[in-house]
Amino acid sequence: DGGITQSPKYLFRKEGQNVTLSCEQNLNHDAMYWYRQDPGQGLRLIYYSQIVNDFQKGDIAEGYSVSREKKESFPLTVTSAQKNPTAFYLCASSMDGANSYGYTFGSGTRLTVV
Amino acid sequence: GIQVEQSPPDLILQEGANSTLRCNFSDSVNNLQWFHQNPWGQLINLFYIPSGTKQNGRLSATTVATERYSLLYISSSQTTDSGVYFCAVVSGTYKYIFGTGTRLKVLA
Fold first, then answer.
1. Of A29, A32, A9, A12, which Cα lies nearest the Cα of A89?
2. DSSP state of A73
3. Residue A109: which of A3, A1, A2, A4 has the closest Cα?
4. Band of the pLDDT at A56, cuts 50, 70, 90?
5. Under 8 Å between Cβ of B35 and B45
């Protein structure tokens, strides 16, 4: 079945560590997105990529980095510069950069700083 | 930027009741999508509905783009309908802006 796979489901990070969240899709979608959700809140855009080897900052990109070397993969690195990384992270994809048919989401990664 | 407001913020229903969730947006939109976030955090696509009306079983949605709102109807609610319902819109660019959601709890 086609879909988006995020791993791991749960991740614990020590202060000062970088961690990388994985997002893989087999939908042949061009565009991919990373969102952050804090408890009781809506989703905020971190980074997005419309095409391989290209990505742009969203509304809350500080302390995060991404890469898009393959169409299927859009990993997110949470760096030590992100001061409050504890949150639920969701990856999404859409068929084209114009978002003509809406988003499909992965099941998310819960990141906790310990 | 575009503002997205959802109402009510919280809703408690008895099983079998009907409900209407509303999404207002401050500017014209290219796309609009309704999602259900289940208790495990998974966001499930309900409707892709930039305009018009769609129905899927007990759920239906209507978007009146000229008046800048969308409605999600849930009929004969079930406990499995509990969770958070999000409206997301695209205006100008292609990335979604999410509302803050309606938290629904259906009691048995």
1. A9
2. B
3. A4
4. very high
5. yes
Confidence of residue A1 (pLDDT cuts 50, 70, 90): low
Smallest CA–CA separation between B37 and chain A, in Å? 10
Cα nearest neighbour of A33 on chain B:
B95
Contact at CB, B40 and A94, closer than 8 angstroms: no
**A66 vs A37, A43, B89, B102, CA distance in Å?**
18, 18, 24, 31
- Kindly determine whether residue B90 and residue A90, on different chains, have CB atoms separated by under 8 Å: no
Separation CA B28–CA B68 (nearest Å): 7
pLDDT at A25 over 80: yes
Interface of A with B in 64-103 (CB under 8 A): 88, 90, 92, 94, 97-103
pLDDT of residue B40: 87
